[in-house]
Amino acid sequence: MKRDTLRKNLGIPEHAFHIVSAGEINKNKNHRVVIEAIAKLARSDIYYSICGEGPNRKNLETEIKKYGLSDRVFLQGYRNDMPKIWRTADISVFPSLREGMGMAGLEAMASGIPLIAADNRGTREYLIDQENGLVCNAASADEFAKAILSLYENKNKDNDMPQGRRIQLKNFHSMSLRQK
User: Fold this and answer.
1) Closest to 91 in 3D by CA, of 150, 160, 20, 146
2) ∠ CA(139), CA(67), CA(94), 5° rounding?
3) Phi, psi dihedral angles at 56 (to 5 degrees)
4) For residues 113 and 89, what is the distance between their CA atoms, to the nearest angstrom?
5) In whole angstroms, what is the distance from residue 138 CA to residue 118 CA?
6) Among 11, 49, 73, 115, which residue has the least CB neighbours within 10 Å?
7) How many Å apart are CA 116 and CA 119, to the nearest integer?
């Protein structure tokens, strides 16, 4: 399926800047900080898809309505087609308060998508700020807004981060094989 068709199926316009997060919808995954960041940016062409289900869904729905983002922030539910979903994304955001490893972040990076993540034990294993992604304080909507805006404003420019992602993931893969 083509990227534009996939986007349309998700409710994302063709020329929108699409942010994707994947993970259970619970307080630890911290999706509300990204919703707040998007509200601060006040750009009508930034869309956000959260893929997952969980006990915090009603709270996120309330946050989305509170900020007037119901037309641009979507709770996509549990998805078993994340490789397709990653293809619709311009960036991925992984805002968890804490993580063991953070496979969704690794999957996004492996898909070639720029990653913004919260600074936590799991993401420190593979994400280096400004080298292969952007790292933010998990509690700071301002830092997430700044990081999103940075990638939004540079979306059509070549940068060194994709190469940095490949190098880091290759090193991570090699390290994990040695540990087995």
Assistant:
1) 20
2) 40
3) -95, 10
4) 7
5) 5
6) 11
7) 10
